[in-house]
Amino acid sequence: MFEISDETLRLINKTCKGKKHLKLTVGYLTDNQSVIKIYNESGEIDSSKKYHYEIGSITKTFTVSLLSKYVSEKKLSINDPIQKYIEELKENTYYPALLSLATHSSGYSASLPLNKREYFKILLGLIFGGSDLDKNNPLYMDFNKMKMLIERNKLKEVDYSWKYSNFGISLIGYVLGIVSGRGILGYYE
Hints:
Layout: H1 6-16, E1 24-30, E2 33-40, E3 43-45, H2 55-72, H3 98-102, H4 116-127, H5 143-152, H6 166-180
Antiparallel strand pairs: 1-2, 2-3
């Protein structure tokens, strides 16, 4: 049976220490068998218990991993602005680079693409029996809505501080779809 190295355990414990609500899931394969261990602030916890993870947050990892793969394959550059791939955007306008989108330092807010009315609609849907992700759901985004949000939220060519942005990651996903030739835009996360 494979054992996690002392160095890896030290890093896991360092990551978890003092973080009450953290659950760090570590998975590995050994001898064609998968092993999953879950850690909290006081060490390993019962890994047989089922935990739920929000798919949107997990897919961000895959999106940025694919971005890294495409950069290493020289299919795109991390310093390219989104306008290089989304040709329908206005010229002579500043657009963030893929790197600033991936590091949540593009300047796009955490609230995009929703306005207050749309947040309220989602909240009511959650309280009274959630709505399906269809074209009436504010998290559904077609190309026109994406383009409108990019152009309405004009950014300046400055160094923005870190601000979590689902919208920024979704733009990376759209660019990756264009680069791969398999692009499709629909749901936000």
